[in-house]
Amino acid sequence: MWRERRRRAHERRRRSTESGARVAEHGVSGAAMREASGVAMPGAAGDWGVSGLSVRYGRHPALVDVTLAVPGGAITAVVGSDGSGKTTLARALAGALKPSAGSVRRPASRRIGYVSAAAGVYRDLTVDENLEFTGGAYGLRGAALRQRAAQLLARIGLTDAHDRLAGDLSGGMRQKLAFAMAVLHEPELLILDEPTTGVDPVSRAELWRLIARAAAEGTGVLFATSYLDEAERARMVLVLDRGHELVSGDPIDIVATLPGAVFTVPIVRRCDGGSIERHAAAEPGAAEAVLDGRSAPHRWRRGADWRVWSPSGAPPAGGTAARVDLSDAVIVAALQAGEPTA
């Protein structure tokens, strides 16, 4: 049974290598064809991104007029919940789909590294074989490929696992292998679609170390994530909500320019330890508002307290100024977006 599994793996590797060699020789990938169609626009080295990008799936708008720069040597984060358009933006930038409107600036497809949300490794190939196939598809051969692969295996801590099947690795190890495959050919643009989702905290920290190093070496990195704490590490952040830009900019600037003010208000509990009853009203002089989901719309839970946004900046009764972070700023942007215009 073990020998049959290995035989199938080597047969798949042979077919994949032949296919990859044809792509490398002739340069006829789907991304290259789309570049020839005029969807992608050339830019200066490291000047990647999208302008006025819109993408539709049938009648459904997945992205609407989104603009984002992904400079070389920096990490740019795209944040949003499921269905916000993160993956659509990543795929459009990689050349995997054609925009409905707008333009895309990216390097040639052979100069792009991509890690999908599904960690695109071949589970029935060994770690070495995964790297060998990927290197062959990008024209790496012989000593140059072996040297680069050995360097990356040492960097990601998988040297001792080089002969293990990828399917036998832990989730964190597979994600690190996928990262190594994406940077094997030293791309100018690295696109990572939620690479840390479902990964243990230690592997998550190790992945961030690898990503930061890639950016420090000059690669432009697009990092899609659902975690705002990760986005705070990026130089630039774009927050998407149902395909629309909610807020964008330097994380520090986003927090610094938050309109109004955010306050911390203690939660009042019944003396018998029962459920939460009420909190201080959002504006001074108003009666306490019962937490029934209908009143105090500008508040949200943070730890043991409520955060209250005061558009006017006036403090609520019992409130103290909060130490605002990117999470607070994004919530305020969402509250603003949901308010009726005058």
Please describe what this structure looks like.
The protein is an alpha/beta fold. The chain has 2 domains: 2-252, Rossmann fold (3-Layer(aba) Sandwich); 259-323, no CATH class. 35% of the residues lie in helices and 26% in strands. The chain contains 10 helices and 17 strands. Strand 12 and strand 13 (276-279) form a beta hairpin. Helix 4 packs parallel to helix 6, helix 5 packs antiparallel against helix 6 (171-183) and helix 6 runs parallel beside helix 7 (201-216). The protein is globular and about 70 Å long. Residues 13-39 and 274-295 have low confidence and may be disordered.
Q: So, CATH architecture of the largest domain?
A: 3-Layer(aba) Sandwich
Helix content: 25-40%
Q: DSSP strand (E) fraction? A: 25-35%
Number of strands: 17
Which outline best applies?
globular
What value does the average pLDDT take? 82
What is the CA–CA distance across the termini? 71 Å
- Number of helices in the DSSP assignment: 10
Domains, number: 2
Return Rg in Å. Answer: 24 Å
CATH class of the largest domain: Alpha Beta
Main sheet: which strands, in order across? 6-7-8-4-9-10
User: CATH superfamily of the largest domain, please?
Assistant: P-loop containing nucleotide triphosphate hydrolases
Q: CATH topology of the largest domain, anyone?
A: Rossmann fold
Task: Report the uncertain regions.
Answer: 13-39, 274-295
Major beta-sheet overview = 6 strands, mixed
